[in-house]
Amino acid sequence: MIKSLLKLKVRGYELDSFGHVNNAVYLQYAEEAKWSFFEETGLLENVRKKDLFPVILENNLRYMHELKMHDDIRIETEWHTKGKILHFSHRIYNDRDDVLSCTVKGKVVFADSDRMLYDIPEELLNMENIQN
Questions:
Q1: How far apart are CA 102 and CA 106, in angstroms?
Q2: Per-residue pLDDT averaged across 22-37, rounded?
Q3: Are 59 and 106 in contact (CB under 8 A)?
Q4: Contact 126/46 with Cβ under 8 angstroms?
Q5: What are the DSSP calls for 9-52, one per residue?
Q6: For 104-128, how does the pLDDT look when each residue is reduced to its tens digit (9 = 90+)?
Q7: Which DSSP helix (H) or strand (E) runs through 88?
Q8: pLDDT confidence bin for 130, thresholds 50/70/90
Q9: pLDDT of 129 strictly over 80
Q10: ∠ at Cα 13 (9, 19), nearest 5°?
């Protein structure tokens, strides 16, 4: 299992008419956490060199507590591989109060431009082995 962390701040344009973070924005936070992990670990550059692309197969969101403007957000993510699939579990917290706001669980595969699936990149498997 690999763990990653991302911190963000709620911006005014992410709010709905009730002053809460819009439900679709939580998915954007999850996407930011994924892309940040891929970039920070060098995985994005490595898969691009192989002409591969991460493809989201599934996202499942569960909302627990609202976030409001200027709340500090902490996104803790656990990643693990199973076969050709990279599974992730994001836990989105209001960092100030340490209150869990939303969970996002899903799956990623790696494919080429012809939509052929590839094995999990070796770099990712190596990271998982190091952290276990």
A1: 13
A2: 96
A3: yes
A4: no
A5: E--GGGB-TTSBBPHHHHHHHHHHHHHHHHHHTTHHHHHHHTT-
A6: 999 999 999 999 999 998 888 888 7
A7: strand 85-94
A8: low
A9: no
A10: 85
Q: Which helix (H) or strand (E) holds 118?
A: strand 117-118
Query: In which element (H, E) is residue 92 found?
Result: strand 85-94
What is the three-class DSSP state of 99? strand
Contacts of 111 (CB under 8 A, 6+ apart): 52, 53, 55, 117, 118
What's the pTM value of the predicted model, to 2 decimals?
0.91
Q: Look up residue 119 and give its two tokens.
A: 């094995």
Secondary structure class of 127 (helix, strand, coil): helix
